[in-house]
Amino acid sequence: MAVKGRGRAVYVCLALASGGLVQTARADDAAGGNTPALSPENQASGDEAVRHENRREEHIHVTARRLDQARAALQPAIGATQTNFSRKAIEANPGADNAPLNSILLQAPGVTQDSYGQIHIRGDHNNVQFRLDGVALPEGVNVFGQALMTRFAHSMSLTTGVLPAEYGFRQAGVIDIQTKNGVSDEGGTLSGYGGVRDYVQPSIQYGGHWGKWDGFITADAVHDRVGIENTTSSYNAIHDLSNQYHVLGHLRYTLRPETRFSLTAGLSNAWYQLPNNPGQQHQFATPLFRADNRPVQEDAPDSAHLDEHQQQITDFAILSWQEDHEKVSAQTSAILRYSSTRYSPDWLGDLVYNGIAQQAARSVFSSGVQSDVTWRVSRAHTVRGGVQAYGERAVSKSNSQVYPVDEEGTISSRTVTVHDSSGRTGALYGVYLQDEWRLTRSLVLNGGVRFDGVEEYVHAHQLSPRVSLVWTPWHGGRFHVGYARYLTPPPFETIGTTSLNRFADTSAAPANYQNDRVKAERDNYYDIGFIQQITRHWHVGLDAYWKQAKNLIDEGQFGAPVILTAYNYRRGRVRGVELTTDYSTGPLTLYGNLAVSRAMGKDINSAQWNFDTDDLQYMRNHWVHLDHDQLITASAGGSYAFFHRTDHPLQLSGTMIYGSGLRKDRETGDKTIPNGTHVPQYVTFNLGLVQTLKHEAWLGGHTMQLRLDVINLFDRRYMLRDGSGIGVGAPQYGLRRSVMGGVALSL
């Protein structure tokens, strides 16, 4: 840190007690000329004022850093597999803060790309937990787009495997975002970013600290024509406009060195056109009528000219109280979240192609509390415990236009309206206790137990033991092995509540009327892994996992609204192996990941009405691949900073993603095997180039960054979905080559 005095520069290095450097900077000498000379008395007084200011700044930074470390220690990843993304790593990814969050996470091992911006971790559909500064956010109903943006993050981590007992409810992966704050991210930045397909993304951020207060706020807007994946392999999608707005604010008050209060709040509002799939055949060619039953004189609409929209809103707030003392640390948080999805159909077009035109809306309001406590009993034992509890209210409404069908199967020449609405209030709760026991200097046993319950559409509870052993037999080498029992509640917001009988004898009648309740998933999870430091800069890791599931939860899209519906497989099994490596020295960073995974299910035993009768019969007697199962997933990347010792470094970075292909149906003669094969494999490359400029005369001491990014560098045409498979809607293709550029100026 440097503090500029009158006529001179003062240099200060702040160090932690461990000797680690907090921050070092150099300030240029103040310009001379008309700067008055200081008398010895005034100069001494000025020096004392600067030293006092330095001590105050040092106190602020050290206190904030210590409390941040204490908060992180409340929820360690002992025995689990964790991938960390530092601020440097985020900025090295092409697009950096302008890139969607899933593009960062796809660089972690075992993370698979899907349509609508979804990701799958270790063969699970969603089942992902998002945390902000260690506080879990309740789930929302958003399907595509992302309420949490990359620019919110100072750093983040992805934790998978055998999770310690403090993690419950969603356990395929825990994504913990350490939000930017007014101490670590002091100052402001104004940026503009954009490129092909009308892509425009302005943003602003500012952080600072004032006495015991510090705060940070960031906001951006996105306008583009690539809101959702293209339904064809063409360069531009038909009807794919998107407008999005995101805001995050973070305010903290440090009452004393041991006590801090914080408030984090954000909102996201996104509006999308749903891309059209041209060349589709009419499914219902009987006389067509508008929603008000006036006859249609013109021809039936082409599927390329439909006009469907969807809006997604998310608001959240977290109020936290943190205490850190010599033996005990704790954090208690109150959480609020509201999210909603609204789908507007093309009334005439949806009737022609689907036999139903449905205006649908879902919303979830959640409130809850999370409290975590760490007690450092002795050098050998650290005990942790806590509680999570949420109350939720889910509401589902729909208005549908359908054709009546008589007993002979003749479709009426008039439409009828079907109204359907439902609401449900439920609760989730969990409590845990665990002990980090250092058996020897090289051997740590982390054992605990967690009790979870769900009182929503289903009533279930479970006592879940967790145990992991971490052994460090030599310098740079670490083994871990563990077992966890998991209870995964069905996602409250995706449980279908349609009143099936209301659609009887209509063009939207289900294939069957079986609709068993979605059940909680119960798992036995095993994990074993090893990581070795080959040299000072090079690491290699290997990890294997196995999950046995009862009532495995999956989700799918059934119908035109892009709203997911949950269902269960009576039995499930997921297994895989991950290989990781990274190398970092000076301005060079390289990494690579390879994952092999297999996810299977058998016998759908809930929400059966969404499925074809033949598919249900086949899956009752055969194991099938889950629709998101991908055998091989790989990612790699690297960055190099030229002129990194100057004020004008030039950073070149690149990433690669490979996938062997998600599942689709396989046709064998007159039989269709659900998810029986996969779409073609693909590989894409992204490139980023960032030039940083800092010049006193040109920029007045400000810093400017010029950015150029190329997504899908070689313009590969690749398919994510072909429109077939269990719970799969329209086809989706990956983004074609996109050239983007931007400029950012520090304020």
Automatic annotation (TrEMBL):
**Signal sequence, renumbered to the chain:** 1-27
Q: Where is the TonB-dependent receptor-like beta-barrel domain?
A: 316-713
Give the membrane topology, semicolon-separated if more than one: Multi-pass membrane protein
What InterPro entries would the database entry show? Beta-barrel_TonB, Beta-barrel_TonB_sf, TonB-dep_rcpt-like
Recorded hits in SUPFAM superfamilies, A to Z, give:
Porins
Native source species? Bombella dulcis
- What this protein is called in its record is TonB-dependent receptor
Major site of localization recorded for this protein: membrane
Q: Where is this region: Disordered?
A: 27-53
One Pfam family per UniProt: TonB_dep_Rec_b-barrel
Question: Where in the cell is the protein located?
Answer: Cell outer membrane
Which PANTHER family did the record assign? HEMOGLOBIN AND HEMOGLOBIN-HAPTOGLOBIN-BINDING PROTEIN 1-RELATED, TONB-DEPENDENT OUTER MEMBRANE RECEPTOR
**PROSITE patterns linked to this entry:** TONB_DEPENDENT_REC_3
